[in-house]
Amino acid sequence: MRAVVQRVTRASVSIEGEVVGSCGRGYLVLLGVGQNDTSDEVERLWSKIFKLRIFEDENGKTNLSLDTVGGELLVVSQFTLYADCTRGNRPSFGDAGAPDASERLYEQFVERARRDVAHVATGRFGADMQVSLVNDGPFTIVLDTDHFSRKR
Prior knowledge:
Elements (H helix, E strand, L loop, with lengths): L1 E14 L2 E6 L2 E7 L6 H13 L1 E4 L5 E4 L6 E6 L21 H18 L3 E3 L7 E15 L8
């Protein structure tokens, strides 16, 4: 799984001009599911995101997590995180997961996040969406479970 985690002061996602999900201070997570991903990656990725300490404390140091600041979450599916541009100029998406399996894992990720975060909003899987955000910092982190250590 791949995620682009953006620390935001607010974010929203719209479909055909209607806002379908939004959050205040917290994270916008663009989530991509790969063809070999399983429920294990859901847990590993969420655990990393939830524990990230990228909010500033009273000394201006990034020591606070989403939970510590009572942050909110907006999760938007984005298969294009699996774009392969190594050959030519038109991206290939062969490493992205199949739609049915990807939607299942996306929904698992959202449900897992809802166990820890009071406000979790989403876009709509597979829809043409417009995402708006105010990136706080800006602060953006790219995560890929293929690069995580399996040790805990």
